[in-house]
Amino acid sequence: GQQVMQIPQYQHVQEGEDFTTYCNSSTTLSNIQWYKQRPGGHPVFLIQLVKSGEVKKQKRLTFQFGEAKKNSSLHITATQTTDVGTYFCAGPDRGSTLGRLYFGRGTQLTVWP
Amino acid sequence: DAGVIQSPRHEVTEMGQEVTLRCKPISGHDYLFWYRQTMMRGLELLIYFNNNVPIDDSGMPEDRFSAKMPNASFSTLKIQPSEPRDSAVYFCASTLGQGNSPLHFGNGTRLTVT
Fold it and tell me: Quick one: which of A1, A63, B38, B40 has the fewest CB in 10 Å?
């Protein structure tokens, strides 16, 4: 079955340092979505990437979709304590327009002040 | 827009009891998903509905779990009888249309079965 692998599982950084989480799929994805879950909260949609090689930015966050559409990354520049949380990538079932979304296990980010 | 509304926020019950979790999706959304989140297994899709019809329930762990969507504005996830290993956070999410639209999650129900 389809799997979405995400690394690292945990990342501890000092405020101001950069952070990157990586997502890999066993199959080609039609698109990939990124979510953020604050401690005690629920996943909140951040962004969706659709095109091969696509790069999108949201302030200090940079999202990339690989050329083969099998991997993706989220990079945060100069982390802040407000960035604390777990970041998930999610990809759909191969060939489906909507169906199961396979979530990675997430990367839990801790930011030390 | 009130978002996806789940109740209760917390549920503590004894093993063997029936548990019913409730969800009201965002008005107009035609897809509804039930997820379970645990430390061990992460976010797992249990079942999803399209226009109130169950489409894929392959993630439902056992016959003890059942889900219904009697109308477009309400869904339930029932566990009967509950077991300690069912302890988890259960999320309901909804989305509009096809094309892999983003999911809107509710605040979740934290279930503890003792």
Answer: B40
